[in-house]
Each structure stands twice: as C-alpha cells, then as structure tokens.
Amino acid sequence: MCVPPPPDLRANRLLRDLPPAEDALLDPHLTLTSLVPHQQLYDAGEPIKALWFPVDSMISQVAVFAGRAMVEVNTVGRDGLAGLPVVLGVDSTPHAALCQVAGRAIEFPADAVAEVLPAAPELQRRIALYSHVSMVQLGQNAACLGRHPAPRRAARWLLTTADRTGRERVELTQDFFAQMLGVRRATVSEIARDLQDAGLISYRRGVITTIDRAGLADRACSCYPLLLAQDQLINAL
Questions:
Q1: How far is residue 235's CA from residue 178's CA, in Å, rounded to a whole number?
Q2: Is beta strand 50-54 parallel, antiparallel or unpaired with respect to 103-109?
Q3: Quick one: pLDDT at residue 6?
Q4: Which residues are bridge partners to 151 per DSSP?
Q5: What is the pLDDT of residue 90?
Q6: Looking at the predicted structure, is the pLDDT value of residue 21 above 60?
Q7: How many alpha carbons fall within 13 Å on the CB side of residue 65?
Q8: Rounded CA gap, 92 and 10, in Å?
Q9: What is d(CA 17, CA 7) in angstroms, rounded to the nearest whole number?
Q10: pTM for the whole thing?
Q11: What value does the mean pLDDT of the chain take?
Q12: In whole angstroms, what is the distance from residue 73 CA to residue 63 CA?
C-alpha cells in the first residue's frame, strides 16, 4: 500500500505546489522511500519499474562500458526525476541509474504513469520542461568531459551536488567519485587534497563538506553557470 509523502517532504520541485486535483490523483501512487549509496534503480537495457523524484538524495545516470566500468552522464536531484524514458513512452534505456548521494526520494510506479499523467496537465508541463533541461545537461556534460580538466569538473560537480540535494555535506567515497568523473582514484585524492588545503572543502572519512562556495565556483569549469541556469528554469516553477 502506498503511503503519500507528507507535504513538507514533497520538496521535489516538479511535485511541489501542484493543483489540488493533481495532488489527489498522484497521492495514491506515491511512496516516500530512502535510497542508499550505490543502490541500483534500473540497469542499462532493463525495464524501468518506477519514476524517482529525489527529495534530498541524488541519482546518477551512467554510461556502462565493458567490464561494468561506469562514467556519469547526468545527475538528478530535487529539481528532476529519474526514469524519464517511461514518461516518453520508452520502458528502457542504454544508461543505468543508481543512487549517488543517499537520502529520500518519492517513488511513482511506472505502470501508473499512463493512467495518471494524461489527467495531470500541470505535471505534464513541468516534466516537458524538465525533459528539455535534461537534454541540455546531458549534452553539456558530454562536452565538459571532453574539454575540461578533472579538477574543474570536480569543483563543478561538488557545487551541483549541493544545489541538487540542498545539502553542503554529502557522503562520497573517493573510489565512487573517481568512477563518476572517469578518472583514477589517485587523481581524485590529489584534487580533494588541493581543495581542502585551499579551505574550500573538508573531506574526512568519506564525507565531503563544502565550506567556501564562492571559492569553489572560482575553481569550477565554465559549465557550472550554464547548468545552474537550466536548474533555475525548474526552480521558477
């Protein structure tokens, strides 16, 4: 039985302040769930069984290569949803999705989408806008991976994570961070040490805390303001 999330936890920006009639349609299908690090939500080529609307968690969409090596292609936080192909009428995707930063998400079963979404025009409008934002971000992330050095990409990733989770403190191992950035663990160690020595972050026992956002923004690549502007399209809903 689904237990609708209380209003104060419906912090995902696609779901907040919907018309009451749409809330009533959605509530029987929504469940507040806790995600743990590395939790697989769907695998490449496998059926997507639900949509996930993060509240204070972050989900990574990853390209999977031979030997299960992964590189992050996009992230989903409280301004978006994971499982977008289902809304577009596709039940699988070449990318996988897993929890990057632990926290809560609102789960919506895929088999209810076709029933509920046509009767929820405001949610449809928001998801259409998010589809555009997601495509822009996917393209920019691909360009970033090819053009910008790892230290600048790492600084941008930390800022984006804080924006999309609403938290300055996140649990993240160096191994996982390296995997998402597509670099060696030793490279991540050097980057984290440099940022910590500069007083921009604190990194202890797998927990990264952003201390100086302005300083971190100075280190971030030029993709950050572009991606932030896209997030703000959703924030303005």
A1: 29
A2: antiparallel
A3: 56
A4: none
A5: 94
A6: yes
A7: 8
A8: 26
A9: 9
A10: 0.89
A11: 90
A12: 6
